[in-house]
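If you are new to this repository, start here. Below is one unmodified record pulled from the training split, so you can see the exact layout before writing a loader.
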Amino acid sequence: MTQTTQTSTTTPNDTSTRDALEVVVLTGVSGSGKSVALAALEDAGYFCVDNLPPELLMDLVALERKNKARKVAVAMDARSATGLPALPEHLAQLKAQGVALVTIYLEATTDVLVRRFSETRRAHPLLTDASGDNAQSVLVEAIQLERELLSDLRDQAHIIDTSQNSAAGLRTQIKTFLANGVPSSGLGLGLGLRLQFESFAFKQGVPMDADFVFDVRMLPNPHYEPTLRAQTGLDADVIAYLSQQAAVSDMRAHITAFLQKWLPAMAADHRAYVTVAIGCTGGQHRSVYLAQTLSADFSSDWSTQVRHRELEKRKSGH
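And here is the target side for that same chain:
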């Protein structure tokens, strides 16, 4: 039986991190799925607050600590634009207090966001007037302004591109991400950095959440092997075929060497999340195999997670 999502985590020998208050800050552009994600967090046992003004974050955390809460999630976005500039400092204070903090930023392409607003007939929170012949161009400007307002948060968050996600797919992705555990405030080099390998199909677009993108379309393609065409990079026959290809082994070694060189520097620069996207033509064989094997290769030194975008969509029927 194949499996499209798998996680492996290295657990630090520090029991204090397991007793810390976990706080998830959920943010992102309007129309990207924050309501769905917040519902997933509530299902996962988090006490959830939507549209919390950033000025109240520290008071809320203090109250929940007093109430002996363990897991809190808050959604904050451009609806509280005036308080956003101070939010990065609040987050730094929470980390300094030992709070196990994770920031999730939901993103989607502008075309997808415009379509979603059209389908739901909702108004963008930064729009004062969406009527008239130029309604779409005004909406695009509001989306761009919102991205600018949230740019500082985006830079320090785990980014999830929901452009091609169904609601069910996003809920699954949120729960899978949280299954890896909320990072501690950081003890040691690799502890606070989480590494996600994501396979995808170039013909379906490059993931917006990718920090690094590797193109593996030049590698031998199992699609042209009749007995392998219907299988995936998770199946034993495809794994055996690709593992015997010298070019595939070279690509795996080159990507490994690149990441081994730069991940420690990114962790030292206080990066909490790094997404490595591996793309082939259909997102079924080569990219899946490499994302899976690279995740396993790095799991002994880093907290790793693997996602197969096209396989997930196929499994959910989208």
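Two things worth knowing about this chain: The beta strands are 5-8, 22-28, 47-49, 71-75, 100-107, 158-161, 194-201, 212-215, 273-280, 303-308. The longest helix spans residues 246-268.
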